[in-house]
Amino acid sequence: MITVLFYVFAAIAVGGALGVVMSKSPVGSLLSMVATLGSMAAIFVLLEAHFLAAIQIIVYAGAIMVLFLFVIMLLNLGHDYQKDLEGGVLALASFATVGAMAGFLSIQLRGAGLAEDGPGGAAIDAAMAEHGVVGAIAEPLYTTYVVPFEITGILLLVAIVGALVLAKKNPA
Amino acid sequence: MITEALVLSAFLFVLGTFGVLVRRNAIIMFLCIELQLNAVNLSFVAFSRIHGMDGQIFVFFVMTVAAAEAAVGLAIIISIFRHYETVNVNNFKLLRW
Questions:
Q1: Hey, are the CB atoms on A13 and B8 less than 8 Å from each other?
Q2: Domain residue spans of chain B
Q3: CATH number for the domain whose boundaries are B2-89
Q4: CB A51 to CB B2 under 8 A?
Q5: pLDDT tens track, chain A, 172 positions
Q6: Which of A21, A36, A49 is nearest residue B45 as measured by Cβ atoms?
Q7: What is the ipTM of this complex?
Q8: CA proximity to A154, closest of B32, B86, B68, B21
Q9: What pTM value is reported for the model?
Q10: Is B7 in Cβ contact with A77 (below 8 Å)?
Q11: I want to staple A21 with a disulfide (CB 3.0 to 4.6 A). Which of A128, B5, B19, B66 is the partner?
C-alpha cells in the first residue's frame, strides 16, 4: 500500500517538475510547483517525517509560492507567454547532459543496495514514541543544534532587512 | 523505499538543473532552484531513515535558508525589473562578455 502511494506521489512530483520546466506561462509553472511540493510533502509523510511535511505545506506551498505569485502579479508577468526555452543545440546538449546525470545516479543508487530501513529509522520511531512527532525533532534542535538555530534567526533578520533595502524605490 | 526516494530525488534535481539551464525567465529559473533545494531535502529525509534525526534537522535549516533566499532573490528581481522593464536574463548583459 505504502509503495503504491509512493509511486503515485512520485509520478505527480515528476509531472509537476516537468510542468515547472516546460510551461510557457509563469503562473502555470508556479501551480505545477505547488503540485510538486504537495506530493513531496506526502512522500515526507510516507518516510515518517510528519513535522517536515507540515512545514513543507505551510512554508513552501503556503508562504514562498505565494511570494512568487505576488511578484509575478506585481510585475504583471502573468501574460508573458513568450517562448523562452533556449532553442536548438544548447537545449539538446543540456538535456542530454542532465539525462545522463540522472541515469548514472539511478544506476549508482540501484547498485548501492541500501537497506529498506536502517538503524536511524528505528531511532526516529523511538524518539517519536517518546516525545511525540514535534518533540522528536525539537529535542536535538534545541540542544545539539541550538547555535545554528540562533544563527538562522539572525539570517532571517538580515534577509528581511536586505529584501526591504533592495526592493525599495531608490530616490536618487 | 529509501532507494526509490533517492532515485526520485535525483530525477527532480536533474529536472531543476535542466530548467535553470534552458529557461531564460528569471522567476522560473528561481523556481527551478527551489525545485533543486526540494530534491536535496527529499534525499536528506530518505537518509534520515538510515542515519537518524540529524537529516531532518538539516532539512529544517535548508527550508529556512530557502525562505530567506527567496525573499532576497525576489527583491533583486523586482529592482532589476525597475531598471530594465523585463525579467528575461538575456537582456542583463552589463557584466557579460
A1: yes
A2: 2-89
A3: 1.10.287.3510
A4: no
A5: 888 899 999 999 999 999 998 888 889 899 999 999 999 999 999 988 899 999 999 998 889 999 999 988 888 876 766 666 656 677 777 777 777 877 777 777 766 666 566 677 777 778 887 888 888 888 888 999 999 999 999 999 999 999 999 888 766 5
A6: A49
A7: 0.89
A8: B68
A9: 0.87
A10: no
A11: B19
